[in-house]
Write a structure and sequence with these properties.
single chain, TIM Barrel, 2 domains, Arc Repressor Mutant, subunit A, 15 helices, 41% helix, 17 strands, alpha/beta
């Protein structure tokens, strides 16, 4: 099973934290849609005949796109690929776009999951981030979606925002739970160069929160949502049983996927492809760039993605895919982290405890293959399990 991603890069305004590729305004929406239809045709063989299981509209702000255009893209993809087994079709949306009329239209064209970018239920925090909705509009958007028949709704929240501590975060979590959504993504604020927050930081007018605050707020997210019955199944993702994000899980498990649109990425199992990050150049047909992953790249990517999930990495799978030397090397490098509590081992699985996933990058880096790695002994290779 494969995934299909559509990148809609248009926004009405730029959020203070966002460093994704986007363009303000929708003047070029129609020519972009035509170019995306052409790309679907040109890449009809990319998935190698695999059936599409998930479809995802990301951005940008895909909810600025009229349902007619979204429907054309879905219908055209269904003529090219086997979409008869699609289990999830997601649209990222801003709360203020989700009118009852728009929601009804989304249901008619086959959207069955909404990812609503709320970020906070605190009006002051929303103003700081330059969001275009307020807390009341965000809550009403979720209620409208439920009235329209959507039974698979995820909301995005951001924590680690300077000037807004535990109580602000706690209220946002409680509001999300009150709205009875099926999935919550909670992301730590990252201050990126070139963003409004990044420019403020360069002027000394803004600074990230302390590491201790980050860990404290992450623990609050984990405890609040897990106590409410959510699974903490990936660093930033929490789901009620049966409602994990299937499309995103495909990225973490190395599933083949095709990305359509400017700046969209694709993966065919051995190569990565990415389109030009320019609406104009994309419309003009500039070809995608690509790289072939080495064996080391594939292994390190496996470690990086799997250790971000609750399941972690399977040593038997490592041995089967990458060789017993790799499995033995992983065990050797993991020993210190296991003793320190940063990793736990259960049978053939190594995983970062969910409460500590926020600092999983240090563990992941330790397990990466580098040129300095020595070969495990024959005894280690025989005893990794």
């Amino acid at each position: 099973m494969a995934g299909l991603y559509f990148h809609i890069p248009f926004c009405k305004r730029v959020c203070a934290y966002c460093d994704f590729f986007k363009e303000v305004g929708t003047a070029r929406l129609q020519p972009l849609a035509e170019a995306m239809l052409r790309e679907l045709e040109a890449r009809r063989d990319y998935l190698g005949g695999e059936a599409v299981q998930t479809r995802y509209f990301g951005g940008g702000t895909p909810s600025l796109c009229p349902p007619e255009i979204l429907g054309r893209l879905l219908d055209h993809a269904a003529r090219i690929f086997d979409c008869s087994h699609v289990a999830e079709t997601t649209l990222e949306a801003n709360p203020d776009d989700l009118s009852p009329h728009y929601l009804d239209a989304l249901r008619r064209i086959g959207i069955d999951r909404l990812s609503i970018g709320i970020q906070s239920f605190d009006d002051n925090c929303l103003r700081l981030m330059n969001r275009r909705h307020n807390a009341a509009e965000a809550a009403e958007a979720v209620r409208n979606a439920r009235r329209a028949g959507f039974g698979n709704i995820t909301v995005d929240l951001i924590f680690g925002v300077p000037g807004f501590g535990r109580e602000t975060l706690r209220r946002s979590l409680e509001k999300a739970l009150e709205l009875d959504v099926q999935h919550i993504s909670a992301y730590h604020l990252t201050i990126e160069p070139g963003t409004a927050f990044g420019r403020r930081m360069e002027r000394g007018a803004f600074a990230p929160v302390d590491e201790s605050v980050s860990e404290e707020e992450y623990a609050l997210v984990h405890e609040t949502l897990c106590n409410a019955g959510f699974e903490h199944y990936e660093v930033s993702n929490f789901a009620r049983p049966g409602f994990r994000a299937r499309h995103n899980a495909a990225y973490w498990h190395g599933v083949r996927y095709l990305g359509i649109g400017p700046a969209a990425h694709s993966f065919d199992g051995r190569e990565r492809h990415w389109n030009v990050a320019s609406v104009g150049d994309y419309i003009d047909g500039r070809p995608a760039e690509s790289e072939t992953l080495t064996a080391c790249d594939r292994f390190n990517e496996y470690v990086m993605t799997r250790l971000r999930t609750a399941e972690g990495i399977d040593l038997d799978e490592v041995a089967a895919r990458f060789g017993s030397q790799q499995a033995a090397r992983v065990v050797r490098h993991a020993e210190g982290w296991i003793r320190a509590g940063g990793l736990r081992r259960e049978g053939s699985r190594l995983a970062v405890p969910p409460r500590r996933m926020l600092v999983s990058d240090a563990v992941i880096e330790e397990l990466f293959e580098t040129q300095d790695d020595t070969q495990p002994s024959e005894t280690e290779m025989l005893s990794y399990s």
